[in-house]
Amino acid sequence: MERGLRDIRTYFEKVPSFLKGELLSSVNAGILGGNDLEFIKYYKEYVEKFIRNNIEIIDNHSGISSGALNVVYEQILFSELARKKNKMITPLYDFLIGIVL
Asked: How many domains does the chain have?
């Protein structure tokens, strides 16, 4: 997770301001479900736009780890967008991880 954030903050040109913060929420979205299809669609479109805006950097920079970036897309963006939209996440396991960089 830390590597993905470091890569994004170092190399990407278009980064949402909340990803520049020191304390970010994260949720493991390995199991993702729910009935708020509007939010899930918003999340999907947000991630797609984020990738499109930085695709040349992702494709052409050999030092960027696609696996590390995936953790950011899956775990941090989902959690932060839910927080931004005041959506409650009910995890399968009841614990949250906060990271400080």
From this structure: 1
